[in-house]
């Protein structure tokens, strides 16, 4: 896993900033004349809507059906929970939490603090994610800070998609492509299914755990960053291995991975309630 980190001293030493390519704007007159015919261009990915946890990264996310008055949800990894790593087969739902998150603006500056009311969902079984319900609504966050939540993509991503991993902990971005998908990704005691594999350019590090993986073309969240093979070991902690449908094991030293998020969108109901029995919900149940 992209190990959770503790303390700010190391962060201060290693803090860096990265940026996705900026798309040049058309001259105003030309843009006005061609607006009806031009294909919309991708916007540069920023830090707006990302958050920093005490030991990981995260983001404020919403489903396409979320209402402005719904409590805002914060997405991160299951292995970033303050209660520790959930064991294989363990699913955490509706557990009280008072965890805080530093909300970042587009430049990566902390502009406010969000507070959790509960861990709405968390697991490291089949996937590695956590969802916190906060005490603020999406509208309150936008009114107070001018920041909108990142929208979750509802469809399975595709190989070759240009992506950006935006780490609120480090205030740093990593840009690469989706290289492909892994039938089973095994790390220590845990197994994850249909994981996203990055091309080598995304050299994520400890503290980037929980970062949103953003489709550069749409600006939507397609996955949550969670791990990478650090030293070439096979299926050990911090050294995940790939297992295909035939049981063949492949080790890719230096390659990093994420867990898809489209299958959790149907689980988000009215009022940001996580309902694992909703039609289409693909998250493991307790």
Describe the structure.
- 7% of the residues lie in helices and 36% in strands.
- The chain has helices at 9-14, 28-34, 138-145; strands at residues 50-52, 57-62, 71-76, 91-96, 100-104, 110-123, 129-137, 150-151, 162-167, 172-187, 190-198, 212-215, 221-228, 241-243, 249-250, 256-260.
- By secondary structure, the protein is mainly beta.
- It is globular.
- A hairpin with a 5-residue loop joins strand 14 (241-243) and strand 15.
- It has three helices and 16 strands.
- The two termini are 23 Å apart.
Helices and strands in order, then pairings?
Layout: H1 9-14, H2 28-34, E1 50-52, E2 57-62, E3 71-76, E4 91-96, E5 100-104, E6 110-123, E7 129-137, H3 138-145, E8 150-151, E9 162-167, E10 172-187, E11 190-198, E12 212-215, E13 221-228, E14 241-243, E15 249-250, E16 256-260
Parallel strand pairs: 2-8
Antiparallel strand pairs: 1-2, 1-5, 2-3, 3-7, 4-6, 5-6, 6-7, 9-10, 9-12, 10-11, 10-14, 11-16, 12-13, 13-16, 14-15
Signal peptide: 1-24
GO molecular function: peptidase activity
Keywords: Hydrolase, Protease, Signal
Quick rundown:
By secondary structure, this protein is mainly beta. Helix content is 7%, strand content 36%.
List the main descriptive attributes of the protein structure presented here:
286 residues; 6-stranded antiparallel barrel; 3 helices; mainly beta
């Amino acid at each position: 896993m992209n190990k959770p980190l503790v303390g700010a001293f190391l962060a201060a030493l290693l803090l860096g900033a990265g940026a996705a390519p900026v798309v040049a704007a058309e001259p105003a007159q030309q843009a006005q004349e061609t607006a009806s015919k031009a294909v919309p261009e991708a916007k540069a990915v920023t830090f707006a809507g990302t958050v920093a946890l005490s030991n990981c990264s995260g983001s404020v996310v919403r489903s396409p059906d979320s209402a402005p008055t719904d409590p805002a949800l914060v997405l991160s990894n299951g292995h970033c929970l303050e209660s520790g790593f959930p064991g294989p087969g363990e699913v955490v739902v509706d557990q009280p939490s008072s965890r805080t998150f530093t909300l970042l603006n587009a430049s990566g500056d902390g502009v406010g603090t969000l507070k959790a009311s509960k861990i709405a969902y968390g697991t490291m079984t089949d996937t590695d994610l956590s969802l916190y319900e906060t005490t603020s609504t999406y509208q309150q966050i936008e009114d107070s800070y001018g920041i909108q939540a990142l929208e979750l993509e509802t469809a399975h991503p595709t190989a070759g998609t240009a992506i950006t991993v935006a780490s609120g902990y480090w205030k740093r971005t990593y840009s690469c492509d989706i290289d492909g998908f892994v039938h089973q990704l095994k790390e220590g005691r845990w197994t994850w299914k249909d994981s996203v594999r990055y091309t080598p350019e995304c050299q994520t590090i400890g503290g980037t755990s929980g970062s949103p993986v953003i489709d550069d073309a749409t600006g939507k969240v397609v996955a949550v960053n969670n791990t990478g093979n650090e030293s070439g070991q096979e299926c050990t902690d911090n050294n995940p291995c790939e297992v295909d449908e035939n049981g063949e094991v492949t080790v890719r030293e230096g390659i990093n991975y994420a867990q898809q998020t489209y299958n959790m969108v149907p689980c988000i109901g009215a009022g940001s309630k996580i309902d694992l029995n909703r039609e289409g919900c693909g998250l493991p149940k307790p």
